Amino acid sequence: MDLTEAERSAVRSVSRKDAVLAVLRAGIIDGRLGPGARLDQNEIAQSLGVSRMPVREALKQLETEGLVVVYPYRGVEVARLDPEAITELFGIRIALERLAVSRAAANLTAPHLKAMQAILKKMDRSVTLGGVDDPWMRQNREFHTIINEASDWPRLVETIDQFRSNVERYVRYYLRTRGREQSQLEHWQLYEACAKRDPAAAATIIEQHLQNTADALIEAIRAGEAAPAPRAGEAAPASKPPAATD
């Protein structure tokens, strides 16, 4: 296929934009760019070795996803979440994920269920690890992704992922390794409901699962429990949190 120079330039620009978007999104989700952090376009462009254009486009996409806020005359900051926003986001997530798991319960195959079980066993072993490279959080996402993708509705999965990204950074920031035992129990209950092909039970469990996480986040924020995530190898704080993290 023959492309004009303008078309080639556009393709290169999109590639750079996607690369910048991936770096910034990862930094926000894993907490390196915390709530309220200022994002300077010139600094980002210089750091990543790109022009301002792909940085501006990436920030525009992150604004659409609710991960950053653009303030006139002030610049761009990583978005903060308050209890009201968490209530709204999780209310939407509950509706979406109830739908996803209801559809998935009939579609999950034996290999799906085997993979889910294997992930849960890994999560049992990593439930208290924490650290910068938190395996439990990664495995948690993998577990839910199998269920959501089995809904066979790609747009539904994409929307759920967007809402997950927005709140996952807060789960990491406020709750870390605390309260995971109850959440892990709910994961196993969800697995059992899926294995029994029981969409009603699975939908009920995912609703309670997400509501528990929302309640825990709201309580933590209101109690002012924000603290830097522990460095690799450090133990999580000993204080008792609200149950559930997801």
Main β sheet profile: 3 strands, antiparallel
Query: Distance N terminus to C terminus?
Result: 46 Å
Mean pLDDT across all residues, rounded?
Answer: 84
Number of β-strand runs: 3
CATH classification class of the largest domain: Mainly Alpha
SSE inventory with pairings:
Blueprint: H1 5-29, E1 38-39, H2 41-48, H3 52-64, E2 68-71, E3 75-78, H4 83-107, H5 110-126, H6 135-149, H7 154-175, H8 180-195, H9 199-222
Antiparallel strand pairs: 1-3, 2-3
Helix pairs in contact: 1-3, 2-3, 4-7, 4-9, 5-6, 5-8, 6-7, 7-9, 8-9
Could you characterize the architecture of this molecule?
With 246 residues, the chain is mainly alpha-helical. It has two domains: 5-78, Winged helix-like DNA-binding domain superfamily/Winged helix DNA-binding domain (Arc Repressor Mutant, subunit A, Orthogonal Bundle); 83-222, Four Helix Bundle (Hemerythrin (Met), subunit A) (Up-down Bundle). Helix content is 67%, strand content 4%. It has helices spanning 5-29, 41-48, 52-64, 83-107, 110-126, 135-149, 154-175, 180-195, 199-222; strands at 38-39, 68-71, 75-78. It has a three-stranded antiparallel sheet with strand order 1-3-2. Helix 4 packs antiparallel against helix 9 (199-222). The protein is globular.
